[in-house]
Amino acid sequence: MGCQGLSFLTALAREDYSEDTLSEALTARGEAQQRLFAMARQQRLACFPRNDAQVRSVIEVSNVCRQKCRYCAIGGKDQALNYTLSADIMFRLISHLVENGRKTVLLQSGENVNDTFISDVTEAVARAKARYPFLRIILCLGNLQREQYSDLHDAGASDYILKFETSNASLFSYCKPNDTLANRLSCIETLHDVGFNIGSGNIVGLPRQTLSDLVQDLLLAHELPLAMNSTTIFIPAENSEFANEPSGDANLTLNMMALLRIMNPHRYMPTTSSLEKMIPDGQYLGLMAGANTVTVHDGTPPELEKHFPIYSSKRIRPQTDHFRDILARAGMTTDNAL
Ligand code: SF4
User: How buried is residue 1: exposed, middle or buried, by Cβ count under 10 Å (0-12/13-18/19+)?
Assistant: First the structure.
């Protein structure tokens, strides 16, 4: 590999995030790609000197959703069961995780804007924070009203994940026909006003997406006031409208992760279960590309898991043994028990 093939590394080191630099970095392979990953790990270590990953458990609290994203199987006509956990069950599930050592819990649902549901989440959050003041509660509940965000924040939830999915407004509308990018970004702004730490990110490999779209995704993620960022590889979910589309490219996804780390070194970034599904050792490779968050799928009652097919009905639901192994191989520790 000649010097020219590595020139984007020099550009990144001086924070040159031009479109040419980012395109070159996204398409780097072989030695150049390995150098990109090494740079991402170096940046992570500079900002997280203990080299520890954040460990969180997810509870999928409802699969009711008013959206009909073309890449998702939730809410489709074939959905066998609509479920919504009560405040009491949510609280008991959270308590069980915390009593077993977890310090961060993610409550995720479809976009269920029903007031009773949001009040139930608010109540569960308030009860959990009263019992476990140290607990960090992350929410991922979709677009809500400002008052609902405020109530959830006042109850003690500190973090909220709302992905922009793609920075291309027409691609966004094509994939999410009931929503707009402008509306999504306005919700992110409201979350910021309300005081949440925000997580956001994109999907790599959406139908019609171009390399230039991914460059713009990187620039948008950099510009937004985020504490966490992520990138997910597109997987054609069975029973979704995109079921017959090709999957996203794993190398592009890993390079996207490395660039998110390099451009935003202080942020948390997950290594996703979709990556593990797409390529052997995918989540380990995600850690080697700069990720520092792992999500343990030990919070949702087992009988409900199959009713939350967000990217596939055959989702991978990684457990603690898997993370112990990949974190040890990546030379990383954890911020709480695994
Ligand atoms: S991706 Fe989220 S918002 Fe879209 S249909 Fe699936 S659950 Fe609903």
Answer: exposed
Ligand 1 contact via 65 beta carbon (within 6 Å): yes
| Atom 7, ligand 1: residue with shortest CA distance | 110
Look at residue 117 in the predicted model and tell me its pLDDT.
Answer: 97
- State yes or no: pLDDT of 86 exceeds 70: yes
Residue 283 to residue 162: CA distance in whole angstroms: 22
C-alpha 236 chain-centroid distance: 17
Residue 4 confidence (pLDDT) above 80: no
Split at pLDDT 50, 70, 90, the class of 21 is very high
Q: Residue 163 falls within a domain, yes or no?
A: yes
CA of residue 83 to ligand 1 center, whole Å: 15
- How close are the terminal C-alpha atoms of the chain, in Å? 41
Is the pLDDT at 1 greater than 50? The verdict is no
- Number of domains, the chain: 1
Question: Cα(200) to centroid of ligand 1, in Å?
Answer: 15
Q: Which atom of ligand 1 is nearest to the CA of 142?
A: 3
Query: Which atom in ligand 1 lies closest to the alpha carbon of residue 68?
Result: 5
Closest residue CA from atom 4 of ligand 1: 69
| Strand-pair partners of 154 | none
- Expressed as residue numbers, the domain containing 255 is 52-334
Q: 194: domain CATH number? A: 3.20.20.70
Instruction: Answer whether residue 325 is part of any domain.
Output: yes
Residue 306 placed within a domain: yes
Pick the atom of ligand 1 nearest to 65's CA: 8
Distance 175 CA to ligand 1 centre (A): 11
- How many alpha carbons lie under 13 Å from residue 36 in its C-beta half-sphere? 34
Phi first, then psi, for residue 287 (nearest 5°) are -65, -40
Atom in ligand 1 nearest the alpha carbon of residue 73: 6
pTM, full prediction: 0.96
